[in-house]
UniProtKB/TrEMBL annotation:
Tagged with keyword Transferase: yes
Topology in the lipid bilayer: Single-pass type II membrane protein
Pfam short name (any one): Branch
Domain of life: Bacteria
Name of the protein: Glycosyl transferase
Compartments it resides in: Membrane
Amino acid sequence: MKIAIGVLAYRAPLVLAETVRHWPSDWQIYVHIDAKAEIAPFAALLDLPNVTILEQRFDALWGGFKVVEAELALMAAANHIDPEVFLLHSDDSVPLMTPARTIRTLEDHQRWIPMVPTDWDVILDRYDAAVCYDIRAINPQHSPGDRRFSADDAASLVGLGALLQRGKIHLDGLFHRSQWKAVFGPDIPYILDRYRADHQMRESFRFSIIPDEMYIPTILGSKVGGSRLPDRYMWADFSMDPKPYLYRELSELAEPLRQEYMFVRKIHEPALARQLLKQASA
């Protein structure tokens, strides 16, 4: 199976280095380093023949559409090798399976590609909202110290104003799932073509809240009808503070290992990443 890995990187270069060594050398890995991050800590990855660091870098603020654009840039890079499966994870994610077991799990596609058609008001409201979280000055999770607007911000506000005049497109169905996903290779060009061609849909999601959990799932869900199957792709714990919970001890991770998740998020210590990878390979 030809695998391509896409990584949204920001704060955990040493954990990512551990994960990269876990994957086989013929798995191609594409890394987007957030524009807010220093690139020097990731420099060691440049020496690895199966790692490509994207030149284009987005300022991927929480809840904004630039997160989606970074994902799409990774998919576009991976599309050049025509992969059978594209896996997306963050640099602070650690795989909980060996590569061989990962492939077996991917072959059982029923376990990992749920796209949930939603009538949940919270999600519908995120789509219906007219906001622009790509602007630092008004992003709810960005530092409040600087409220100046840039020329790009002004252009975004013009786009938001135009959307308010014409309204968002009506969707036959809104699909929702985690940002972290596995995508069949043949679906990658379909997603990229819809992004480029369907301006109204793109702009409707651009000015929504947390579109990374809605835009690509809606493109795929409208194509294949979606699925309500359990998601065992990425584990993150939102029951404890800080949300999602930052893990420090191997003993805290018994549940995702027991439930056979493919990845776990929020690992910032390389020593813990090594312990997890050793346990996963046992």
